[in-house]
Amino acid sequence: MIRNSFEKVIDIVIIVLIGIFSLFCVVPMIHIFALSFSGNRAIMSGEVFLWPVEWNFHSYSAVFGDASMMRSLVITVILVATYTAVALAMTIMAAYALSRRNFKGRNIMFGLIIVTMFFNPGIIPNYLLIKELRLLDSPMSLILPLMINAFLLIIMRTSFTGMPNELEDSAWIDGCGHFRFLLRIVLPLQLPILATIGLYSAVDRWNMFQDALFYISDKDFYPLQLKLYQMVINSQVNDATAQEGFNAATPIPQGIQSASIMFATLPILLVYPWLQKYFISGMLTGAVKG
Amino acid sequence: MQTEVRRSGTELPVKRRNAITGFKRQWPLYLLMVLPMTFFITFKYIPMLGVVVAFKDYNIFKGIWASEWVGLDVFREIFAMPQFYKALRNTLMLNVISLLTFPIPIILALMLNELRINWYKRLSQTLLYLPHFISWVIVGGMAIQLLATHTGSVNEFIKSLGGQPIPFLENTIMWILTYTGAGVWHYAGWGTILYLAALTGINKELYEAAEVDGASRLRKIWHIALPGIKPTIVVLFIIQIGRMADISFEQPYALQNGYVMDVAQVISTYVYTVGIQSAQFALAAAVGLFQSVVGLVLLLTAELISRKVNNQGIF
Q1: Would you tell me which of A39, B29, B214, B228 could form a disulfide with A97, CB atoms 3.0–4.6 Å apart?
Q2: What's the CATH architecture for A62-288?
Q3: What own/partner pairs with CB < 8 Å and gap ≥ 24 does A249-255 have?
């Protein structure tokens, strides 16, 4: 009986600790959300915690009224959609071919692909390549160099390899070629892994700003994350010095920055619940067998 | 790869197999590989050749190939630069400090594994993974909103309690802690997934046997759960060590600011500043190459150690 109550104590300790850590993960997001809807005075006096004080939409109307912000959003949406389609198509082609057991030369090709995961020549050779291909300041520089992620390719190939061989044999006997087999049988059966890789590619493209920072200097082509970087992070030093000068001066940057952060994160938060379900199972298959 | 599916006993007759494996059946596969292989050659292998820039006096107008060879001159130059050593030191320092947070996902996974309330378990998992999907730009922006000395919410709160504001982002030591904390926030929940999967793979009979022997909960964790996930721990730890010389670009770049450059300038951000911003391509390429080679050596060493310790390689 003593042991039972001791176990109860452990249970409670675990529940509390997990709860604290989970809150630690979401509270910052919720706080920014609250800030983005709060009034200037409330933000400045630090009254806002998890719920907006003095509800208003000023910050959001500023963000939505900013033409360059909306242009960045449109560019990013087009970029994400194009990238996801291209990346998915390329990965499917390679994963299917490499998963066929009698495909001569597949080990050599697979080996060549694996090697690229180990040696990364670095930022400059990649930059010079983009420069020599005349892709600087072109949206193509944000799509072409990332079309196939070797790690995701391995995951998809593993999943394709797991399909029963008899399926291919009988399809072949029925006169079905590789293309029709891939389109009519493999892809419909592999929807979960396609969703995983597709969603992962989309989120990746949405979140990444490094390549845009390197390759895009024309402000008209800034994707959202880069725009946000320039707005929120790059301007912080100026803000800090401005705040030192006139301490109680205009607090609006904080509201606008919070609203911009929510604006760029909301799509991710919306797809996240689906993403998580697919992604975990997909990732585990890949991580365990890859 | 060794995952090749072996067909036991049902081998097709030789004649039919030849027909099936013939070019007639294979040409579509080669066709499918054309674009992917073109991608890998163009965007992965050509840049590997591009590292020769590090051995050349790169001239923008001549291009990579026509520029003059200068041997190891560029490397002599970088090894004489104090900023290079600073970037190297910072890379290693931030990585070593981040390595201290390595047990956090293990502890989280062990605790989640002990949770009996299913809805609570699922909810907390969802919340824990969430930060992984938030970009570093957003994390950097949130850090400023929350932690800035004069405007950040945390410091507003401290001030309202009558305390002194803490310079989370401006003081070097506080910045290192903030950087590490942001790393935990972003990665810990995600890392938990792998350990949880390893934990679910442990044979249930072991627990039942321990139960019969009257083992306590902590004993079961110590003698069954931990040994059960030891291979996973070792592999992930060694991968971390292998990545010592490597540091991602986005995390330090999104978190750094003018006050803390002394500790926040790491190799990747240094290469960007020197190479792309000031167009000293050869210098930056040499720094990048140095980093890649050290990284490769560490990775291969880690693989060797893993084979010794774990009886199994990482790859």
Answers
A1: B29
A2: Orthogonal Bundle (1.10)
A3: A250/A40, A251/A40, A251/A41, A251/A43, A251/A44, A251/B151, A252/A40, A252/A58, A252/A59, A252/A62, A254/A35, A254/A43, A254/B145, A254/B151, A255/A35, A255/A36, A255/A38, A255/A40, A255/A43, A255/A58, A255/A59, A255/A62
